Amino acid sequence: MPELPEVENVRQTLLQLIQGQQIRKVTIHRPDIITGIATPQSLLLGKTIANVHRHGKQLAILANDSTQSTLNIHLGMTGRLMGLTGLRPKHCHIEWGLANGDRLGFIDPRRFGGLWTFSGYQDLLQSRWSKLGDDALLITSTALSKRLARTTRSLKAALLDQNLVAGLGNIYVDELCFNCKIRPDRIACEVAEIKTFQKLVREMRKLLKQAIKQGGSTLRDYVMVNGHSGQFQNLHKVYGRTGKPCVTCSSPLQGILLAGRTTVFCPSCQQ
Q1: From the centroid of its chain, how far is CA 116?
Q2: DSSP 22
Q3: Are strands 70-74 and 114-118 parallel, antiparallel or unpaired?
């Protein structure tokens, strides 16, 4: 599933394509992936795009009308927003035609993602994004410590919880724990040292910014709106490397199951 770095790259490349453009045509092939009013008008037909925002793993496309009519998009596991050329690709559920002739499609083979329509941006903030934790690029060590102090789950399970911190997933939690030299199965509420939270937040921002700069991690389905793949998968230190030597100490990396996810760490470096 695309995580914060991947969704941020989708946001950036989407903005280049649609900002300032008027939506001249909307074709809905699968209305069941839309929550809320499912009409071309609710999908911004006739509107000019003002901006694209992101919170955690979700996107919001804002029109420049008086209420900032908003389309909220969650890519889910296999969802993609892509510029289209030629025939409509398989599993393309929504198509937008722009005033300059460009086309945009929402493609989702497994339909775990979806679209939510709102008459205004504030409606999205109050109804959906208010339930999310602070964005992983913006959360403070104080806020993180308060959230983790309330849970007896493993550190990894807590960091995966979008209600505690928005944007992290399986890839970047494994990488974050390795960079901080913390075992992912450590009980979250037992992390009491303020220096540890400061390091978690510092390394979290550093890791996510590095991954954004590399275009995110392309493992299976993820590509940017322009069709380009990410490159950060080539820099993964632990994710997907069970049994391979640690990049720091050469010990074999260990894989366990946490929060229903395969989790990889170094038993020597992560005490």
Answers
A1: 16
A2: B
A3: antiparallel
Both structure tokens of 256: 């366990």
User: What confidence score (pLDDT) does residue 192 get?
Assistant: 83
Q: Which residues fall within 8 angstroms of residue 209, CB to CB, at 6 or more apart?
A: 137
Residue written as tokens 């939506």? 23
pLDDT, tens digit, 9 for 90 and up, residues 11-48: 999 999 999 999 999 999 999 999 999 999 999 999 99
* Residues whose CB falls within 8 Å of the CB of residue 86, separated by 6 or more in sequence, listed in order: none
Burial of 107 (0-12, 13-18, 19+ CB in 10 A): buried
Query: What values do phi and psi take at 132, rounded to 5?
Result: -85, 155
Banded pLDDT at 244 (limits 50, 70, 90)? very high
CA distance 147 to 167: 15
Active site members: 2-3, 57, 261
Write out pLDDT tens, residues 113-138.
999 999 999 999 999 999 999 999 99
76/162 Cα distance (integer angstroms) = 13
39 CB-side CA count, 13 A: 6
Please give the torsion angle defined by the CA atoms of residues 236, 241, 246 and 247, in that order, rounded to the nearest 10 degrees.
-30
271 confidence band (pLDDT: 50, 70, 90): confident
- The residues, ordered by sequence, that sit 6+ positions from 254 with a Cβ below 8 Å of its Cβ are 242, 264, 265, 266, 267
